[in-house]
Amino acid sequence: MSKIPTLSRQKANAVSAAVFFVGCIYLLITGEAWPGLAAVIGVSLVSRQLMRARPFDAFLSLFCFSLLIFLPYAWAQAISMPAAITLLVREALHIRRDTAQQKTEEFKAELEDEKG
Questions:
Q1: Is 51 a domain residue?
Q2: φ, ψ for residue 93 (rounded to 5)?
């Protein structure tokens, strides 16, 4: 089974920020605040998660933001709140894991530099 290609956390964040700002500019031009803002946040978050090879998180984010856009606010809030909490916990765990992996890679690079 082939591994899904992934971008580094910094590159994924940069692309996601660019998607968010382009979406915000579009909203300023068109003047649509809601549900446009939820869609812009959702698309930028989903794009970041897909670039980091986290399809489950991307699906969960897409589900939450779709509910916010298409359902009345009270229903959407009640349904998507547990999913949002799940995403926050998973994001915190991924950040911790990414930081540990980054430190390991930097340490290996330093060791190779000292050897060479």
A1: yes
A2: -65, -40
